[in-house]
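Q: What would this complex look like in 3D?
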Amino acid sequence: MVRFILKILLFITLVLSIILTVTRVKSLKNEHKSFANYDTDENLYSIKKNEHYDFLLMGISHARNFTRHKNHLRVEKILNKKFINIGRGGGKCGPAAEYVYLKHFFSRGNTCNYVIYVPTPPMFFSDYLNVNSSIFEFEPFRITFFFQYLISKGENKKQQLYYYVTSKYKSQWENVKSISLDSVDWHLKEYDTAAINLGFKQAYPKGLDTVTFNKNKKIIKETIELCTKYHSKVIFMMTPSMFGKWPGNERVFDYLHNLQAEYPIEVYDFSDVCEDSTLYFDHHHLNSKGVSWFAEKYLKPLLIVTDSSFNLDPAKVSDINNSNVQN
Amino acid sequence: MLFNSLEYLLFLPSVFILYWFVFKHNHNIQNLLLLVSSYIFYGWWDWRFLFLLVFSTSLDYYTGIRIFESRSRKSKTIWLWISICINVGFLGFFKYFNFFITSFADALSLFGYKADLWTLKVILPVGISFYTFHGLSYVLDIYNNKIQPERNPVSYSVFVSFFPLLVAGPIERATHLLPQIIKPRAFNYNKAADGMRQLLWGFFKKIVIADNCSGYVNQIFEKYQHNSGATLLLGAILFGIQIYCDFSGYSDIALGTSRLFGIELLRNFAFPYFSRDIAEFWRRWHISLTTWFRDYIYIPLGGSKGGMWISIRNTFIIFLISGFWHGANWTFICWGLLNALYFLPLLLTNKNRAHLDIVAHNKIFPTLNEFLKIIGTFLLVSVAWIFFRSKNVHVAFDYIFRMQGWIFVRPVEALKIIKTPVLYCMLVFTALEWLNRDKQHALQIGNLNVSLRWLLYLSITFLIILYGSFNKTEFIYFAF
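A: Here is my prediction, written as structure tokens for the whole assembly.
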């Protein structure tokens, strides 16, 4: 009997060790490609060890947009600051995975002065973002990250980690290459209400779902606590969209403002500061020109002031930079 | 609870440890543990239907004793019919009520009457066909003086509800299973190790082959009107592979699990797709059901002893009942009828027992003649499966019609639907099944060199992890 049990345990250990080792080896193939933050939407390529950044950006596509299409280089140049972007777009990632990315970032000895979180309302209300199975499909395989996610509170961890491992054995993994364009210069041609409404339907599959909202509120709180632990100040900053405020914006910002009583965080809502369609490539993503404009007009003043004078509102930020306004 | 779920992966070792470590010295408590575990296993799906299971068990337990203790034949017969009527009544209600009502309404409409008959939204209790047949065989065996009733209610309940076989068989016989439950069991390393191999092979067949095929089959059957003949043929073949790997995979997991507890269950499959004719196929496919029908219906009807016409009549009855047992749909009846028609020429020429041995025994490859017979039989069976898979008889005929004439158009194009790794897995599956066709299951490789054996276990496990489909797909036979 004991022999039988021992053999079963030996077999399980062997299977796990071999699969983790082989997956790691297969993963190294792409890690050697040394992608920059803007070359890929995956985060683990960029999260290195013992690096210091002026700030870290996180959120969904509206955060990622500051890095995509080499916007990263433009923003760094305008701000004269070094930053890392761990935001994930493409409907792939919600607050739960963002939290683990951030935890992984800190656990590798990295630091940053500020964490700028772009709190796009759909990420609070759509449960799909937290349960998407293919979230780590193209991420390099790191055993530490695997276990960090395994012990996290993710809702679809089994499936997500299963794809994380097995995707390294698929041909798509072999063919991963840089996705970056040099810039996105095209702009929105017309304001299309039907397209916006269709987009809202997709972004809020269950409407303003309170259950999902409450779950994500907890994760946001834990994210703030994690940043506090690593001495990074948290700034919530919503980026502009052509239609102004997103559905649910008020609930999100009410919650964030309430958190200000508990934590030393800053909250800015720039949702409706820009209606110039030439600065967008769709209804809610700034194009390269728009990103530069936003960095110059809002992000720069927001970051040049010291911690003590941080309590700004969008109007004040706008005033500070009034002379540089380019529409 | 599904075999292919994380819950089962935790449930099985827990029961195993309690069974062999905690209650090792008390056989009665071991049986009680098996019973409680079986009820948890079944109740995980829907606890309300536990009452039906307990009622069915109690009914057969009680009527079994009454039949045995009745002095007159008449009294025995009355008790037997009480058991049969209630058992079949429940089965009929849950499984066939709506079928009869709608068929009756359809029949009336042929004569111009428009009947607005009511149907029920009844959930089919998982495994009802299997545990009903368990109970029936028990009371029939007592009636026929083959066994004595089991007085210990726990032992009898374990016989009916033992979790590995509860929801999709094999359909056990009291003569085979009850003695194993009654007597104390000792842990046997070789039996348990082989059980693990069978379990692993069952998971491979279900999770890698059947569940991957299921995706392709659904894709082809759902839009069959838009597919080429070659693709439709491929769809039929893939469904044949799917249903075999799904059901025999389930049986392998059931048999393997059972052996971990020192209990041997009846073999359900003996590599049926290596059969050289339909008669051989039916001796190797769903053996526990086929032999049930043989022993409790075919032989009592006179079997083959009353001349050719009686034999033909009985064969058709058995195939029709077999089809109907699978489900309340005319497609299953057509499937049974078609198999009976396949069987007929063998019966008429007295060749239905021509292939009782193992094909190409002690050889690596079959002869060309054997190979062609195997392929021919497989294709016939695959065509019959079209009825099994189709929504209704009209769709099945339409599918077959569209398959004709275009069969040889772009067969290679059709194959492209299957992902390359899955194709490799199918080759591994076919090779192992063929090489071990004289064994109880394809991974019965205890005699191989230890390194080679472990290499094979690890490879199969990796194939399951990497190419398996983990969508918790139910086993097809849960629906029967």
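A: To summarize the key features: Chain B touches chain A at residues 6, 20-21, 187, 189, 192-193, 196, 454, 457-458, 461-462, 465-466, 470 (CB under 8 Å). The longest helix of chain B spans residues 73-110.
Q: Very helpful, thank you.
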